[in-house]
């Protein structure tokens, strides 16, 4: 059954515009046209649904643990220790609960899709893949569109065996792992769930195996994600093992293209990023997590100049807010480069397309026909409350900059997924 939405403003061709109606049928947009008819939602602006391109939902269980460093001895390793303790304690039930809480917060924050970078496969019973089912069930119950990015994880470091809680991540041999990918693909619930593949990192997957994964994933038409150059220690270990950076290893062995998304790239060199972008590879930034863990500030403006496709993710879910991810992305560039308005200038013009990163960039990284208000795209939207206090005194022209620099959850009134509207609700 078709429906027609006429918001006060719609995000069309990179700007908020008045006088548009969007027709929906079968969960997709069937028409976008200008109209003189009164708005059906006169106090709302409509943007494509926020797409969270990188999440570890189970890490929602870490909130408040190992995150706030209060003594000189506190550092990344306290967070890492807390993470492995959580992994070691996971059951299918607790993995479901952490994931449901994270996905519910995402919905409340206006996110309509999530790429769940999923590597917690097994319960303490061994190679049972029981946690795969838990995450899919949680996403289904939260009502969020899920791309389960099923991770291959084989080694505990370059040339090191898995140990301790890492055994929960074990992909086994390639036949076993691909069978698990097929299994979870069959278990995906309805039209809101699909699958992509993950090379967890080059320290966790030998490069020859990573190359075979890319080859098979491309044969199947699946997107490929991997963690890359998040921390200097990773780069140093790769230099010792292979004589080159992880990004250069990707360039030489994995044939990056539009189907590949490298997550973080916080410490990627300009020449490596230029070559990666020229090949078509995309980058997912997770500014809140990168700040939370003290990883550093990626050169977003430089990535933009290189032509790299970019998107955003919530990663560790220490804070779940796409508005704040965009804001941290903007403010991080000001801190990094000493420039005022590196991404959003004083007139409100978006120099780095942050809303596109939060919508169409994420959709492209996940292989979804979403993130854009055009005919044929999925009818996934985030509804903006124009009467919300943080948006007082904004104009049509300054609304996007006001959302990024001053918006919060009060600005989001509802989400629409596949044409179905859900009012804002907490997890």
Folded structure, characterized:
Helix content is 35%, strand content 22%. With 427 residues, it is α/β, with parallel strands linked by helices. The protein has two domains: 3-48 and 372-423, Urease, subunit C, domain 1, CATH 2.30.40; 50-366, Alpha-Beta Barrel (TIM Barrel). Strands 7-8-9-10-11-12-13-14 form an eight-stranded parallel β-sheet. The protein has a six-stranded mixed β-sheet with strand order 3-2-6-15-16-17, with no helix packed on it. Strands 1-4-5 form a three-stranded antiparallel β-sheet, with no helix packed on it. A hairpin with a 2-residue loop joins strand 4 (20-25) and strand 5. Helix 2 (92-108) packs parallel to helix 3, helix 11 (322-337) packs across helix 12 (354-366) and helix 11 (322-337) packs across helix 13 (399-406). It is globular, with a radius of gyration of 21 Å.
What is the topological layout?
Layout: E1 3-5, E2 7-12, E3 15-17, E4 20-25, E5 28-34, E6 41-48, E7 50-55, H1 76-89, H2 92-108, E8 111-118, H3 130-142, E9 145-152, H4 174-187, E10 193-199, H5 207-220, E11 224-228, H6 232-242, H7 246-253, E12 260-264, H8 270-279, E13 282-285, H9 287-292, H10 300-306, E14 309-312, H11 322-337, H12 354-366, E15 381-385, H13 399-406, E16 412-417, E17 420-423
Parallel strand pairs: 2-6, 7-8, 8-9, 9-10, 10-11, 11-12, 12-13, 13-14
Antiparallel strand pairs: 1-4, 2-3, 4-5, 6-15, 15-16, 16-17
